[in-house]
Predict the 3D structure of the following.
Amino acid sequence: MATWGPTASGGRSVVSVQATTEAGPPADGDGVNVNDVGGFDLVVEADEGQTLSGTGELVGYRQHESGWAFAKDSAVTIDSSANGQRRIVFTGWTVANPRGFVAHLANGVGVSAGGLRLYYYCTTLRGVRA
């Protein structure tokens, strides 16, 4: 089961520790709070000493008052360009509707051994690190 918590930089930015495949949807309290967030970078990191093998995807979800829902436009494919890398970043995510929560869950993400972490580094609507 994925766990979620603040990053070392604090604010809205969060980290999720995940297995290579997680069951969705996320639980209440999971994800990154995007209230007043203008955008974020998403970093995928294999466990220490391990590398990504360039397979799988991150399934996107959004949560509003009605609960979590699959967000088809938020899926991220981990392709062969990630093969052998420990970290990859997906930059420039814009939050079109800055309220609620956003989360991604691993689905068949290949790593040499172990699991992975997802880091969400957020910026406010005013361009300030959040």
In short: The beta strands are 3-6, 14-18, 32-33, 37-46, 57-64, 67-70, 76-77, 87-94, 101-107, 116-124.
